[in-house]
Amino acid sequence: MSEKDYGKTLNLPKTSFQMKANLPNKEPNILKKWYEDEIYQKGLNKGTKSFILHDGPPYANGGIHIGHALNKILKDIILKYKRLSGYNAPYVPGWDTHGLPIELKVSEKLGSKMKEMSPLEIRKECTAYAKKWVATQRDQFKRLGILADWDNPYLTLNPEYEAKQLEVFGELYENGYVFKGLKPIYWSPVTETALAEAEIEYKNVMSPSIYVKMEANDDLLEKLGLTETTYVVIWTTTPWTLPANVAISLNPEFEYGVYKTEKGNLILAKVLAEKAFGEMGIENAELIKEFVGADLELTTYKHPFLDRTGTIILGTHVTADAGTGAVHTAPGHGQDDYVVGTRYNMPIISPINNKGVLTEEAGPFAGLFYKKANKVIIEHLIESGHLLHHKEFEHSYPHDWRSKTPVIFRATEQWFVKCEGSDLREKALKALDDVKFVPEWGRNRIGSMLESRPDWCISRQRVWGVPIPVFYNEATGKEIFEKEILNRVVELVKKEGSAAWVKYTAEELIGEELLEKYNLKGVELRKETNIMDVWFDSGVSHRSVLETREGLHRPADLYLEGSDQHRGWFQTSLLTSIGSTGDAPYKMLLTHGFVNDGEGKKMSKSVGNVVAPEDVIKVYGADILRLWCASVDYREDVKISDNILKQMAEAYRRVRNTARYILGNASDFNPATDAVAYEHLTEIDKWALHKLEKLKRVVTESYDKYEFYNLFQEIHYFAGIDMSAFYLDIIKDRLYTEKTDSMGRRAAQTVMSEILVTLTKMIAPILSFTAEEIWSTLPEALRDSESVLLSSWYENNDEYIREDLEVKWNELIKIRKDANKVLEKARQGENRIIGNSLDAKISIFVDDKTLNDFLMENSRLLSDVLMVSQLEIVGQKDESFIRGEEETIAYFKVSHADGEKCERCWKYSTELGSNPEHPTTCPRCAGVLEN
């Protein structure tokens, strides 16, 4: 054995870039540097084109959850890519800071003390609470690596925001889209306020199902030519609404029958009779009369327990799905009832108060909570003989999404945005024609919701929010709304916030000059006490933010939120925009699904399957969470679990190791002096650049189409398979053993460096922390900016596209795959032939002249590709040859390489010792050492 240590003569990799990522500890330092160096601000200065992604405001209550993380990271990926691509793409984050959840939390904290506090004092507590959670969430979002104008977010409680909101309300009012009216709306008896449709969720509940008979008056009997007592049968699941019954609706075209039964003559739709009688336990029903619904229009019946005459009216909302075809109609307690009732000028009776307790109008049931009233009313109907059947059944029922309790339909005086009976819906639907949707099915979803959208109730009976800026003449109840008065209120709110409405009297708000101008001096005035729905607050952000902030514009290029916002923020933004400026506030809507656990189940604290962003970051780091966001097909609901995160960490490791390998082997490379021109590169180097060029185009297209889930798969395959498992593996011998400044080694470094710089830019929007770490470790000559986030997106290079090389190398790769399987077998078992592939000599027989000639021509190249010491293409084979699986006309045989092992490169040579100075090295290595 030679005493020389040839290991020291190899070009071994040197890099400070660690194999172990240690992201949880490294990321905060990178984050700190981004903010110290003002990377976000500098990123805006380099853009020449504008791209505005408008942030939908999360609610300032509690810490962020995994759905928030998905949403904000997707936005950040898009904006970082846009900035790298030359866009000025600001990100102004926002928070929804008014509304019931905050008021309830403050109420819990203050307890009984709250009853002694003034509205102004309560509002101060709410402000402090909201700002506390804004600060908490801001820090959590920043830790995810999201670059934004965090020092100047928009808050819906900011005075300038509230002032613009009041202006938008004024425009909608003046354009005839806002009105006050008595209508049935969703009402929460627990939180004592009206609710918008977007605040409703459905859960299963048990409810009573009852059939009730109501006695026909003489005019109805006369219409049917009857003299015997006859009853109309209704079915309902809300007995507590019977005190509000003023009508029974029939379908004008349905066929109805009068049936003689043991429980009297009963009227119901023929198509539903059999099923209804089955449920009522009526066995012998004889059809004695037939008619259509329209025949009974405006005839009357007796209310079952109140001194009231009800009217038979007609409505196409009556279906044959369930019940009797005769629908209990209480316009004060249902949308369909209200619509049909107002058409017939029926009274709107709603005998229930804010707390869900029946009032005096409910007669003997006054003072009962509506749920208790159900039971008591049923008992009364049994006693009076009006009840035909009662059972309990489970069904889906609307709940308040905040208190998680059932809601009721209740007619109250509220403020509405007029969607029905105006051109607002029609204009909104038309405006969507010019909006792009990702995914495309979002268009039908929001369109179908808009088509059936009822009037939007925008008033709330609470303290914490933006007031509805309307005054009243106390004596006459007449509304007072003047543009000049509103403008004065807006100016006050700009200075003092919406608390000014609470702080000042009506007279002080209007001011002496305008009191005089509008003949209001000496008139007793009252301010509206209702506040606006928080969906109105956030729904005007396109005006309150995009119109007022420097560097922003409307319409926004993109709104990106969860798919639930088709019925929420996307819709309310559209309606306020159409109603005020007549256009859509956005050019594109992109939606993502919800995050479920690894089995696709909804996350719940009680089940214990919640994955919290901070827990993921502590274990894996934010980059792994960001990688998960980029890898899932966000268009549908997505899954996350520890197992899924482990898979992400493994994919990440492959990309990191590729970067580390290149950094280590390019540490002595200076592109200014060492780069090799394309025409002097070896064929495999050109193949690698061809693969890179194709990847570049796929990645750019995927970013442009917002298909991140495709692009990382491509990057991962390129880094793990094309590079680590093939190209970098093959060029290792060239890098380690050739002369440091040889053309071959410098060619490999030229290609590797270009690959790494491009790859770093590709992953920067997603793996921002890791990309920055790679960037800071790159030789300075390879960096075009102080941070990867300030660099420019790569440019395509058509010269690198070589489809001819792709075809040729695909064939070589097939041979390599087959050879690797045969080499692996030769390494195994007691009679193993080799230790590693360099110990091998491989013989290949091909039963095809074309392929044989191809391999003969490329035999030297193939020897490098197979990473063996010797290779021979033979003219015949014996039974010891193994047939290929990829290339089935090729046969392979492994034997031990001839000669002796070179102590420096480990390849076998029959010419070892030809240089007496280096007797244990091959001629190639000896030549390198001589020089």
Descriptive tags:
931 residues; alpha/beta; 6-stranded mixed β-sheet; 31 helices; 41% helix
Put the structure in a nutshell.
This protein has 31 helices and 35 strands.
Describe the structure.
The protein is of the alpha/beta class and 931 residues long. The chain has 31 helices and 35 strands. The strands form eleven sheets. A six-stranded mixed sheet has the order 13-11-12-9-8-17, with helices on both faces. Helix 19 links the parallel strand 26 (558-562) and strand 27 (588-592). The longest helix has 30 residues, at 708-737. The chain is elongated and about 125 Å long. The model has no long low-confidence stretch (mean pLDDT 91).
Q: Helices, strands, pairings?
A:
Layout: H1 23-36, H2 39-45, E1 49-50, E2 53-54, H3 66-84, E3 87-88, E4 94-95, H4 100-110, H5 119-143, E5 154-155, H6 159-174, E6 178-188, E7 193-195, E8 200-215, H7 218-224, E9 230-236, E10 247-250, E11 255-261, E12 264-269, H8 270-280, E13 286-292, E14 300-302, E15 309-314, E16 326-329, H9 335-343, H10 370-384, E17 387-400, E18 408-417, H11 424-431, E19 436-438, H12 442-451, E20 456-457, E21 459-460, E22 471-473, E23 479-480, H13 483-496, H14 499-503, H15 506-510, H16 512-517, E24 525-527, E25 531-532, H17 534-539, H18 541-544, E26 558-562, H19 569-580, E27 588-592, E28 595-596, H20 613-619, H21 622-631, E29 638-639, H22 642-665, H23 671-674, H24 683-704, H25 708-737, H26 743-763, H27 768-777, H28 803-827, E30 840-846, H29 849-857, H30 859-866, E31 870-874, E32 882-883, E33 890-896, E34 900-901, E35 908-909, H31 923-930
Parallel strand pairs: 1-3, 2-26, 4-5, 9-12, 10-15, 19-27, 26-27, 28-29, 30-31
Antiparallel strand pairs: 6-7, 6-18, 8-9, 8-17, 10-16, 11-12, 11-13, 14-15, 18-20, 21-25, 22-23, 22-24, 30-33, 32-33, 34-35
